[in-house]
């Protein structure tokens, strides 16, 4: 929760209302942990970043023109990097982990959304091979949420 509090502080100082005291809160993070969906990246025995992976798509995703229509799809939520270690490749490492996890578990794509005011994420995801597929809106937010997708290569058994 300390990592989230620090991220909220930095976001709000930078003019972003993506996260606040209501989201993500202790109850949401506790559910992520209980469900086994929260992954942690540690640096020097401290939590450097977190990531949630599950199959829960927001209903707003239904209006997006996805490239990969055959599932299952892994959804990336709540990627956060502690402000003290931002810029050191933690988000890239967490994203790479998500892709490896998705491939190992038979997912056809990874989908995610990020806040239109989150310039770091908007720059990062295209560099990692994610295609912007549209935008969704969520109640109570002043900006839209660009939606991204990365189609994963199929690793089938080919006979030579």
Automatic annotation (TrEMBL):
Annotated N-acetyltransferase domain ranges read 1-153
Going by the UniProt record, its keywords in alphabetical order are: Acyltransferase, Transferase
InterPro entries from the xrefs? Acyl_CoA_acyltransferase, Bact_Acetyltransf, GNAT_dom
Q: Which organism is it from?
A: Paenibacillus odorifer
Q: Could you tell me which PROSITE patterns the record lists for this protein?
A: GNAT
Q: Which domain of life is it from?
A: Bacteria
- Name assigned to this protein: GNAT family N-acetyltransferase
CDD domains named among the record's database cross-references:
NAT_SF
């Amino acid at each position: 929760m300390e990592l989230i509090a620090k991220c909220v502080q930095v976001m709000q100082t930078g003019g972003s209302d993506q996260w606040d005291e209501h989201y993500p809160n202790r109850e949401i993070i506790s559910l992520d942990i209980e469900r086994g969906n929260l992954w942690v990246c540690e640096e020097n025995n401290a939590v450097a970043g977190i990531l949630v992976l599950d199959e829960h798509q927001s209903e707003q995703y239904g209006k997006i023109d996805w490239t990969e229509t055959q599932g299952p799809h892994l959804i990336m939520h709540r990627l956060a990097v502690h402000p003290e270690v931002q810029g050191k490749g933690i988000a890239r490492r967490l994203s790479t982990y998500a892709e490896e996890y998705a491939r190992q578990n038979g997912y056809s794509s990874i989908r995610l959304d990020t806040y239109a005011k989150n310039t770091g994420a908007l720059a990062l995801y295209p560099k990692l091979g994610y295609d912007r597929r549209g935008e969704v809106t969520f109640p109570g937010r002043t900006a839209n949420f660009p939606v991204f997708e990365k189609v994963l290569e199929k690793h089938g058994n080919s006979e030579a």
